[in-house]
Amino acid sequence: MNIAVIGGGNGSYAAAADLSEKGHNVRLWRRNKEDFLPVMEAQSIVLKDYRGSRRVSLDLASTDIGEVLKGARLIILPLPATAQQAIVKEMAPHLEDGQVILLTPGTFGSFLMSQGLKDLGCTAEVVFAETGTLPYLTRKHGPDTVAITTRATRLPTGVFPAQKSEYAFGVIKQAYPAVEELKDALDGALMNAGPIIHPPLIILNAGPIEHFDFWDIHNEGTQPSVRRVHNALDNERITIREALGYKPPHFPLADHYAPEGEEWMYGNAAHEKLVDSSDWREKLYLKTHRYMTEDISCGLSFLVSVAEWAGVKVPVAQGLLALASVIVEEDLRSHGRTIENLGLGKLTQTEMKNLLNRGVL
After folding, report:
1. How far apart are CA 99 and CA 73, in angstroms?
2. Domain covering 2-189, topology
3. What average pLDDT does the segment 287-313 reach?
4. Where are the beta strands (DSSP E) in 143-187?
5. In sequence order, what DSSP letters do the residues of 53-71 get, joined into one string?
6. Which CATH architecture has domain 194-248+270-358?
7. pLDDT one-digit tens code per residue, 162-190
8. Ranges of each domain in the chain
Protein backbone atom coordinates (compact mmCIF):
# COMPACT_ATOMS: atom_id res chain seq x y z
CA MET A 1 0.00 0.00 0.00
CA ASN A 2 1.15 3.54 -0.71
CA ILE A 3 1.61 5.31 2.64
CA ALA A 4 2.67 8.87 3.45
CA VAL A 5 4.18 9.62 6.86
CA ILE A 6 4.27 13.26 7.94
CA GLY A 7 6.75 14.65 10.47
CA GLY A 8 10.29 14.36 11.72
CA GLY A 9 9.81 13.11 15.27
CA ASN A 10 10.25 9.76 16.99
CA GLY A 11 6.90 8.36 15.89
CA SER A 12 7.26 9.48 12.27
CA TYR A 13 10.67 7.85 11.84
CA ALA A 14 9.44 4.68 13.56
CA ALA A 15 6.34 4.44 11.37
CA ALA A 16 8.28 5.10 8.16
CA ALA A 17 10.94 2.47 8.90
CA ASP A 18 8.60 -0.14 10.38
CA LEU A 19 5.99 0.03 7.61
CA SER A 20 8.64 0.12 4.89
CA GLU A 21 10.19 -3.02 6.29
CA LYS A 22 6.76 -4.66 6.25
CA GLY A 23 6.58 -4.16 2.48
CA HIS A 24 4.59 -0.94 2.09
CA ASN A 25 5.64 1.86 -0.23
CA VAL A 26 6.36 4.59 2.32
CA ARG A 27 7.11 8.23 1.64
CA LEU A 28 8.33 10.42 4.50
CA TRP A 29 8.03 14.20 4.68
CA ARG A 30 9.82 16.53 7.03
CA ARG A 31 9.92 20.32 6.92
CA ASN A 32 13.45 20.92 8.25
CA LYS A 33 15.75 20.15 5.32
CA GLU A 34 18.98 20.51 7.27
CA ASP A 35 17.98 18.01 9.95
CA PHE A 36 16.43 15.72 7.34
CA LEU A 37 19.46 15.69 5.05
CA PRO A 38 21.01 12.40 6.33
CA VAL A 39 17.75 10.56 5.62
CA MET A 40 17.21 12.23 2.25
CA GLU A 41 20.76 11.51 1.10
CA ALA A 42 20.47 7.82 2.00
CA GLN A 43 16.72 7.55 1.25
CA SER A 44 16.61 5.24 4.26
CA ILE A 45 16.43 5.04 8.06
CA VAL A 46 18.44 2.90 10.44
CA LEU A 47 16.00 0.85 12.53
CA LYS A 48 16.99 -0.66 15.88
CA ASP A 49 14.82 -3.07 17.84
CA TYR A 50 14.99 -6.51 19.48
CA ARG A 51 16.21 -7.94 16.15
CA GLY A 52 19.25 -5.68 16.06
CA SER A 53 20.18 -2.77 13.80
CA ARG A 54 19.64 -2.52 10.04
CA ARG A 55 19.08 0.10 7.36
CA VAL A 56 15.58 0.23 5.86
CA SER A 57 15.03 1.84 2.45
CA LEU A 58 12.15 4.26 1.92
CA ASP A 59 10.16 4.78 -1.26
CA LEU A 60 10.89 8.50 -0.87
CA ALA A 61 12.18 10.93 1.76
CA SER A 62 11.41 14.51 0.70
CA THR A 63 10.64 18.03 1.90
CA ASP A 64 8.05 18.34 -0.90
CA ILE A 65 4.77 17.54 0.84
CA GLY A 66 2.83 17.39 -2.42
CA GLU A 67 5.16 14.75 -3.79
CA VAL A 68 4.88 12.71 -0.59
CA LEU A 69 1.07 12.88 -0.40
CA LYS A 70 0.44 12.13 -4.08
CA GLY A 71 -1.24 8.76 -4.52
CA ALA A 72 -1.02 7.83 -0.83
CA ARG A 73 -3.97 5.76 0.34
CA LEU A 74 -3.06 6.15 4.02
CA ILE A 75 -1.54 9.31 5.50
CA ILE A 76 -0.08 8.89 9.00
CA LEU A 77 0.47 11.90 11.27
CA PRO A 78 2.48 10.96 14.40
CA LEU A 79 2.63 14.68 15.19
CA PRO A 80 1.94 16.62 18.38
CA ALA A 81 -1.64 17.86 18.57
CA THR A 82 -0.20 21.38 18.64
CA ALA A 83 0.98 20.92 15.02
CA GLN A 84 -2.38 19.90 13.57
CA GLN A 85 -3.67 23.35 12.67
CA ALA A 86 -0.48 24.29 10.86
CA ILE A 87 -0.03 21.01 8.99
CA VAL A 88 -3.59 20.97 7.68
CA LYS A 89 -2.82 24.17 5.74
CA GLU A 90 0.18 22.53 4.08
CA MET A 91 -1.71 19.34 3.27
CA ALA A 92 -4.95 20.88 2.00
CA PRO A 93 -3.88 21.71 -1.60
CA HIS A 94 -2.56 18.19 -2.18
CA LEU A 95 -5.20 15.88 -0.71
CA GLU A 96 -7.12 13.45 -2.90
CA ASP A 97 -10.50 11.74 -2.65
CA GLY A 98 -10.48 8.51 -0.67
CA GLN A 99 -7.38 9.17 1.41
CA VAL A 100 -7.46 8.15 5.08
CA ILE A 101 -5.63 10.43 7.53
CA LEU A 102 -4.56 8.66 10.71
CA LEU A 103 -3.64 10.71 13.80
CA THR A 104 -1.55 8.74 16.30
CA PRO A 105 -3.02 9.85 18.67
CA GLY A 106 -5.33 12.76 17.84
CA THR A 107 -6.76 14.53 20.92
CA PHE A 108 -9.92 15.06 18.84
CA GLY A 109 -7.74 16.51 16.10
CA SER A 110 -9.84 14.57 13.60
CA PHE A 111 -12.64 17.11 14.06
CA LEU A 112 -10.23 20.05 14.24
CA MET A 113 -8.46 19.13 11.00
CA SER A 114 -11.68 18.26 9.19
CA GLN A 115 -13.06 21.70 10.01
CA GLY A 116 -9.75 23.23 8.98
CA LEU A 117 -9.99 21.65 5.54
CA LYS A 118 -13.51 22.99 5.11
CA ASP A 119 -12.42 26.47 6.17
CA LEU A 120 -9.61 26.31 3.60
CA GLY A 121 -12.01 25.33 0.84
CA CYS A 122 -10.53 21.85 0.38
CA THR A 123 -13.07 19.68 -1.46
CA ALA A 124 -11.18 16.36 -1.29
CA GLU A 125 -13.31 13.68 0.34
CA VAL A 126 -10.98 12.32 3.00
CA VAL A 127 -11.61 10.38 6.21
CA PHE A 128 -9.90 10.96 9.56
CA ALA A 129 -9.12 8.48 12.31
CA GLU A 130 -7.34 8.73 15.64
CA THR A 131 -5.75 6.16 17.92
CA GLY A 132 -5.47 5.82 21.68
CA THR A 133 -1.68 5.93 21.54
CA LEU A 134 1.33 6.01 19.26
CA PRO A 135 1.79 2.59 17.61
CA TYR A 136 5.32 2.48 19.01
CA LEU A 137 7.30 3.09 22.17
CA THR A 138 10.21 4.72 20.39
CA ARG A 139 13.03 7.25 20.52
CA LYS A 140 15.41 8.54 17.84
CA HIS A 141 19.09 7.71 18.39
CA GLY A 142 20.43 10.14 15.82
CA PRO A 143 19.52 12.11 12.69
CA ASP A 144 18.82 8.95 10.67
CA THR A 145 18.32 6.32 13.38
CA VAL A 146 15.28 5.28 15.39
CA ALA A 147 14.93 2.65 18.13
CA ILE A 148 11.62 0.86 18.69
CA THR A 149 11.30 -0.56 22.20
CA THR A 150 7.95 -2.22 21.50
CA ARG A 151 5.02 -2.05 19.09
CA ALA A 152 1.36 -1.68 19.97
CA THR A 153 -0.45 -5.01 20.20
CA ARG A 154 -3.87 -3.39 20.63
CA LEU A 155 -4.58 -0.05 18.99
CA PRO A 156 -8.06 1.34 19.77
CA THR A 157 -9.07 3.69 16.96
CA GLY A 158 -12.07 5.88 16.15
CA VAL A 159 -13.09 7.31 12.77
CA PHE A 160 -14.46 10.73 11.79
CA PRO A 161 -17.06 10.69 10.37
CA ALA A 162 -18.11 7.39 11.91
CA GLN A 163 -20.29 6.49 8.93
CA LYS A 164 -17.06 5.98 6.96
CA SER A 165 -15.66 3.54 9.54
CA GLU A 166 -15.87 0.40 7.44
CA TYR A 167 -13.92 2.00 4.61
CA ALA A 168 -11.33 3.62 6.90
CA PHE A 169 -10.64 0.48 8.92
CA GLY A 170 -10.25 -1.49 5.71
CA VAL A 171 -7.35 0.82 4.82
CA ILE A 172 -5.79 1.29 8.26
CA LYS A 173 -5.70 -2.41 9.14
CA GLN A 174 -3.49 -3.11 6.15
CA ALA A 175 -0.80 -1.11 7.96
CA TYR A 176 -1.80 -1.81 11.56
CA PRO A 177 -3.64 -5.13 12.01
CA ALA A 178 -3.65 -4.48 15.78
CA VAL A 179 -6.32 -1.79 15.36
CA GLU A 180 -9.47 -2.32 17.44
CA GLU A 181 -12.55 -0.53 16.13
CA LEU A 182 -14.18 2.14 18.29
CA LYS A 183 -17.56 3.77 17.88
CA ASP A 184 -16.40 7.20 16.71
CA ALA A 185 -13.68 9.84 17.01
CA LEU A 186 -14.72 11.04 20.48
CA ASP A 187 -14.53 7.42 21.60
CA GLY A 188 -10.97 7.48 20.25
CA ALA A 189 -10.11 10.82 21.86
CA LEU A 190 -11.29 9.54 25.26
CA MET A 191 -9.03 6.51 24.84
CA ASN A 192 -5.94 8.73 24.51
CA ALA A 193 -3.45 7.54 27.13
CA GLY A 194 -1.21 10.63 27.02
CA PRO A 195 -3.46 12.95 29.07
CA ILE A 196 -3.69 10.24 31.75
CA ILE A 197 -0.15 8.95 32.07
CA HIS A 198 1.89 12.12 31.52
CA PRO A 199 0.24 14.93 33.57
CA PRO A 200 0.82 13.23 36.96
CA LEU A 201 4.36 12.24 35.92
CA ILE A 202 5.52 15.74 35.04
CA ILE A 203 3.52 17.74 37.60
CA LEU A 204 4.39 15.49 40.56
CA ASN A 205 8.01 15.31 39.34
CA ALA A 206 8.32 19.05 38.64
CA GLY A 207 11.08 19.50 41.26
CA PRO A 208 13.50 16.84 39.99
CA ILE A 209 12.68 17.69 36.35
CA GLU A 210 13.84 21.26 36.91
CA HIS A 211 16.76 20.28 39.16
CA PHE A 212 18.45 17.38 37.35
CA ASP A 213 20.02 17.51 33.90
CA PHE A 214 18.34 14.18 33.05
CA TRP A 215 15.36 12.53 34.73
CA ASP A 216 13.43 9.36 33.93
CA ILE A 217 9.82 10.01 34.85
CA HIS A 218 8.97 6.40 34.04
CA ASN A 219 11.59 4.96 36.38
CA GLU A 220 12.41 6.99 39.52
CA GLY A 221 9.47 9.27 38.71
CA THR A 222 6.88 6.50 38.89
CA GLN A 223 6.32 5.83 42.58
CA PRO A 224 3.27 4.39 44.41
CA SER A 225 1.89 7.86 45.21
CA VAL A 226 2.09 8.85 41.54
CA ARG A 227 0.40 5.63 40.53
CA ARG A 228 -2.48 6.36 42.90
CA VAL A 229 -3.00 9.70 41.14
CA HIS A 230 -2.84 7.88 37.79
CA ASN A 231 -5.56 5.50 38.86
CA ALA A 232 -7.82 8.23 40.20
CA LEU A 233 -7.42 10.29 37.02
CA ASP A 234 -8.04 7.27 34.81
CA ASN A 235 -11.17 6.38 36.78
CA GLU A 236 -12.48 9.85 35.93
CA ARG A 237 -11.76 9.25 32.24
CA ILE A 238 -13.64 5.96 32.33
CA THR A 239 -16.57 7.60 34.14
CA ILE A 240 -16.78 10.18 31.33
CA ARG A 241 -16.76 7.42 28.74
CA GLU A 242 -19.54 5.54 30.51
CA ALA A 243 -21.62 8.72 30.89
CA LEU A 244 -21.43 9.20 27.11
CA GLY A 245 -22.45 5.64 26.42
CA TYR A 246 -19.08 4.22 25.36
CA LYS A 247 -18.68 0.54 26.19
CA PRO A 248 -15.71 -1.49 27.46
CA PRO A 249 -12.95 -2.23 26.96
CA HIS A 250 -11.82 1.12 28.37
CA PHE A 251 -8.13 0.13 28.44
CA PRO A 252 -7.49 1.15 32.07
CA LEU A 253 -3.96 2.44 32.56
CA ALA A 254 -3.47 0.03 35.47
CA ASP A 255 -3.16 -2.76 32.90
CA HIS A 256 -0.09 -1.04 31.45
CA TYR A 257 1.72 -1.30 34.77
CA ALA A 258 0.57 -4.84 35.58
CA PRO A 259 3.07 -7.48 34.38
CA GLU A 260 0.24 -9.98 33.97
CA GLY A 261 -3.49 -9.90 33.37
CA GLU A 262 -5.45 -8.01 30.73
CA GLU A 263 -3.21 -6.93 27.86
CA TRP A 264 -2.92 -3.14 27.46
CA MET A 265 -2.13 -1.26 24.24
CA TYR A 266 1.55 -2.24 24.20
CA GLY A 267 1.09 -5.73 25.62
CA ASN A 268 2.25 -7.09 28.95
CA ALA A 269 5.54 -5.93 30.52
CA ALA A 270 5.66 -2.84 28.27
CA HIS A 271 6.46 -0.55 31.21
CA GLU A 272 9.40 -2.74 32.18
CA LYS A 273 10.71 -2.71 28.60
CA LEU A 274 10.39 1.07 28.51
CA VAL A 275 12.36 1.52 31.74
CA ASP A 276 15.00 -1.04 30.76
CA SER A 277 15.71 0.76 27.48
CA SER A 278 16.88 3.92 29.34
CA ASP A 279 15.70 5.91 26.30
CA TRP A 280 13.37 7.97 28.50
CA ARG A 281 16.17 9.23 30.77
CA GLU A 282 16.21 12.63 29.13
CA LYS A 283 16.29 16.36 29.60
CA LEU A 284 12.78 17.69 30.08
CA TYR A 285 11.95 21.37 29.71
CA LEU A 286 8.89 21.48 31.92
CA LYS A 287 7.02 24.39 30.35
CA THR A 288 7.66 23.49 26.71
CA HIS A 289 7.83 19.69 26.61
CA ARG A 290 5.08 18.02 24.57
CA TYR A 291 3.81 16.33 27.75
CA MET A 292 2.80 19.84 28.82
CA THR A 293 1.89 21.44 25.49
CA GLU A 294 0.10 18.42 24.05
CA ASP A 295 -1.01 16.08 26.83
CA ILE A 296 -2.05 18.81 29.27
CA SER A 297 -2.78 21.97 27.27
CA CYS A 298 -4.61 19.99 24.61
CA GLY A 299 -5.45 16.59 26.08
CA LEU A 300 -6.22 17.28 29.72
CA SER A 301 -7.99 20.55 28.87
CA PHE A 302 -10.16 18.64 26.43
CA LEU A 303 -10.88 15.90 28.97
CA VAL A 304 -11.96 18.39 31.64
CA SER A 305 -14.12 20.35 29.21
CA VAL A 306 -15.89 17.20 27.98
CA ALA A 307 -16.50 16.12 31.58
CA GLU A 308 -18.08 19.44 32.46
CA TRP A 309 -20.16 19.37 29.27
CA ALA A 310 -21.36 15.85 30.13
CA GLY A 311 -22.03 16.75 33.79
CA VAL A 312 -19.33 14.46 35.21
CA LYS A 313 -17.30 15.51 38.26
CA VAL A 314 -13.54 15.23 37.70
CA PRO A 315 -11.75 16.87 40.67
CA VAL A 316 -8.41 15.15 40.03
CA ALA A 317 -8.31 16.20 36.37
CA GLN A 318 -9.37 19.74 37.27
CA GLY A 319 -6.73 19.93 40.01
CA LEU A 320 -3.92 18.75 37.74
CA LEU A 321 -5.01 21.21 35.06
CA ALA A 322 -5.02 24.03 37.61
CA LEU A 323 -1.50 23.13 38.79
CA ALA A 324 -0.26 22.97 35.21
CA SER A 325 -1.76 26.39 34.56
CA VAL A 326 0.27 27.80 37.45
CA ILE A 327 3.46 26.17 36.13
CA VAL A 328 3.08 27.56 32.58
CA GLU A 329 1.50 30.82 33.80
CA GLU A 330 -1.52 30.47 31.55
CA ASP A 331 -5.16 29.54 32.17
CA LEU A 332 -5.23 26.26 30.24
CA ARG A 333 -8.91 25.64 31.00
CA SER A 334 -9.74 28.80 29.07
CA HIS A 335 -7.03 28.76 26.41
CA GLY A 336 -6.40 25.05 25.86
CA ARG A 337 -8.09 22.67 23.45
CA THR A 338 -11.55 22.59 24.94
CA ILE A 339 -14.94 21.64 23.64
CA GLU A 340 -15.92 25.31 23.87
CA ASN A 341 -12.90 26.52 21.90
CA LEU A 342 -13.73 23.96 19.22
CA GLY A 343 -17.18 25.56 18.91
CA LEU A 344 -19.04 22.53 20.26
CA GLY A 345 -19.86 23.60 23.81
CA LYS A 346 -23.54 24.26 23.16
CA LEU A 347 -24.31 20.97 21.42
CA THR A 348 -26.61 18.48 23.09
CA GLN A 349 -25.39 14.90 23.35
CA THR A 350 -27.76 13.95 20.51
CA GLU A 351 -26.36 16.71 18.32
CA MET A 352 -22.83 15.60 19.17
CA LYS A 353 -23.63 12.02 18.15
CA ASN A 354 -24.98 13.25 14.83
CA LEU A 355 -21.86 15.32 14.25
CA LEU A 356 -19.58 12.39 15.06
CA ASN A 357 -21.51 10.10 12.72
CA ARG A 358 -22.04 12.40 9.72
CA GLY A 359 -19.11 14.79 10.07
CA VAL A 360 -21.17 17.97 9.80
CA LEU A 361 -22.76 20.21 12.43
Report:
1. 5
2. Rossmann fold (3.40.50)
3. 96
4. 145-151, 155-160, 179-181
5. EEEEE-SEEES-HHHHHTT
6. Orthogonal Bundle (1.10)
7. 999 999 999 999 999 999 999 999 999 99
8. 2-189, 194-248+270-358
